[in-house]
Design brief:
The protein has 4 helices and 23 strands. By secondary structure, the chain is mainly beta.
């Protein structure tokens, strides 16, 4: 083997730079023929037949996408199509095609007309909905073709000048978010849609009066342990969920949970009735410990509540995933569901064998504002969560 390596070594040499595919043939190449167009939202596929020549390197398309900007697309000679996109409207556009040789000699031009369908940013604009939310505005937009778009929100500042307050870029089919921190007086918000090519829609406006929001008085919170609740372990008591500390110790069940009741449930008394909006949960591990989403940390959870005397109920394990994913109350339940949350998206019963969860569940303290976004149920003062 050593002899073989030594024999091959003189055949290798260092190459500097990029070896460009070039040709000395300055002959003008032929044009593309048999051109066909397939339009789509904001663009078009152009197919063609290449001239019979081994000297062609690529096909170039030149076109304007709006009144200000032009784009250029190129396609290798290995392909028989070129994609053009970024058009601002659904109308006729002229696209100029050239074949280009390896000597960078262009053919005569061929002009083809495309008529793209309505681009995504314009399709999204009519779907924009704004409504008042706790401390601000909730915005919803539907991106039917999952295109990369931006939902831009504006409002006026103290000098009554319009300012961008949020830029939400996404390819999701449903884009929704809330902007908070505003007083409970009427305020005008505007939303417009943009795309990756710099096209911008008109702006839709709405007068919004934010819903009053204040932090729940957590000094009134108390454990309310029911027989079916998971036992506490390691001295990590339930009160740690609302003690304004985001580091360890937080809350932890016994390990393992005995007897095993699945899903694991904990119950506490809010000590007050409240209209609920949202909360923040800090998972263990954010303080530097290596337990983020590990060692029994809940991946999916549901918050339930009631104003009447608590009733001890055990959720059926075989229905829990459907319950979590469809946000439905259990059959015969007298608890009101305040929606579920999954982070990261996962169903532990379906994706992870329950035996791996016998180590218990754990969480760092909940720093509460008002539990759960956009929940406008009646006042609820006893909550139980299951994980």
């Amino acid at each position: 083997m050593m002899l073989l390596l030594l024999a091959l070594q003189p055949g290798c040499k260092k190459m500097d730079g990029f070896n460009t595919v070039i040709s000395n043939d300055k002959t003008k190449p032929g044009v593309v023929t048999n051109i066909k167009v397939a339009n789509f939202s904001g663009g078009a596929y152009i197919t063609y037949s290449l001239p019979d020549s081994k000297n062609i390197l690529y096909v170039q398309a030149q076109y304007k996408i709006n009144d200000k900007a032009s784009r250029q697309s190129k396609s290798s000679y290995y392909s028989d199509s070129v994609t053009v996109g970024g058009f601002a409207k659904s109308q006729d556009y002229q696209v100029v095609l050239w074949t280009v040789s390896r000597a960078e000699v262009r053919s005569d031009s061929v002009v083809v007309t495309v008529h793209p369908d309505t681009p995504a940013y314009l399709r999204t604009l009519p779907t924009v909905k704004m409504k008042n939310d706790f401390g601000g505005v909730h915005i919803l937009a539907v991106n039917k073709v999952n295109a990369p778009i931006g939902v831009i929100t504006i409002t006026t500042d103290a000098q009554n000048k319009w300012q961008i307050i949020s830029q939400n870029y996404s390819t999701l089919d449903t884009i929704q978010f809330s902007l908070r921190g505003y007083d409970t007086v009427s305020r005008k918000f505007g939303v417009y849609i943009t795309d990756q090519w710099g096209n911008i829609s008109d702006t839709v406006f709405n007068d919004i009066t934010p819903i009053y929001e204040a932090q729940v008085d957590k000094s009134k919170f108390l454990p309310y342990v029911l027989n079916s609740d998971a036992p506490t372990g390691f001295g990590w008591v339930l009160q740690n969920l609302w003690n304004d500390q985001t580091t360890s110790p937080g809350y932890h069940t016994a390990q393992p949970i005995q007897p095993l009741v699945w899903p694991a449930v904990i119950t506490f008394d809010m000590g007050q009735s409240a209209k609920l909006s949202r909360y923040t949960i800090w998972d263990r591990g954010l303080d530097g410990a290596n337990y983020l989403w590990e060692a029994g940390a809940p991946l999916t959870w549901v918050l339930w509540g009631r104003t009447s005397t608590p009733v001890d109920e055990t959720m059926r394990q075989q229905t829990i995933c459907r319950l979590l994913e469809e946000r439905l109350p259990a059959a015969g339940s007298t608890w009101a569901s305040l929606r579920c949350r999954t982070s990261p998206p996962s169903c532990p019963i379906r994706n992870i064998p329950p035996r791996t969860w016998l180590s218990g569940m754990q969480a760092s303290p909940i720093i509460s504002t008002l539990p759960f976004p956009k929940c406008v149920t009646c006042g609820l003062n006893v909550c139980r969560t299951y994980h």
